[in-house]
Amino acid sequence: MRQTILEILRFIASDIKKETECQCFSYIQQRQIINSLFEEYDKEDYGMAKIILRLTVIDSLYSTNAAYSYFSIEEMAEKIMSLGTERMAADYFYEIATGKVNGKILFDEFYGIRKNLSHGSKQMSLLSKYAYYLLLQDVDSYPLGFPIYDSLAIESYPKVSEKVENPVRKNIEATINGYISAIYELREKIFENNEPWYGLQQFDLLDAYLWR
Questions:
Q1: Are the CB atoms for 139 and 205 separated by under 8 Å?
Q2: Torsion, Cα of 130, 131, 136, 140 (10° steps)
Q3: Distance CA 147, CA 125 (A)
């Protein structure tokens, strides 16, 4: 069954590489728009304005609903900016993705305030997408990438885990650390090393597989 999964992943890898050829407005083109905001990162113009723009576009195109809480995106941008340079932020996100540090400093926060003045919500999906696109810019330095926290992936995970040898956990804990740990275990069952696969980050491929 592992070989079957790898065959599907090869098809997905080929599909991802053809994204730039798409001329229609679609999910693929949305990804291209977002990715363009992260290209040539780690430059002198890095700052709050750039982070806010990225978060706003991701929130809008993915409908993560962060904007429903006042000041949520600004507060997230401040947290990301506090990590230091863009390279330092990327390194920190990769340490979360590889289990070297936990993600509580960002992912367990409640961002913004609601109309009734209560706290806003956690934004694991939006933050994970930001980290995903940031690490996507340097496959050599971050060969695994960052897994996107996604409800469809959580739903399909048990079905996929049953198809690999010595099945991994059946369910995913609804925290960023639990999610990453589960995806990491599945990754280890499928791929033979920590290197890019067909030139693509392993978490990127698994995200696409679980989503499909």
A1: no
A2: 160
A3: 10
**Mean pLDDT of the region 91-106:** 91
Q: What is the DSSP string of 174-206?
A: SSHHHHHHHHHHHHHHH-SSSS-BTTB-HHHHH
**Inter-helix orientation angle 124-136/72-81, to 10°:** 40
Mean pLDDT calculated for residue range 153-158: 87
Pick from 132, 107, 110, 115: nearest CA to 34? 132
Total residues belonging to the chain? 212
Quickly tell me which residue has 């780690």 as its tokens. 42
Can you give the pTM of this predicted structure? 0.88
Alpha-carbon distance values, 171 to 11, 104, 163, 174, 181 (Å): 26, 21, 14, 9, 11
* pLDDT confidence of residue 18: 62
- Nearest-angstrom CA–CA distance, 3 and 9: 10
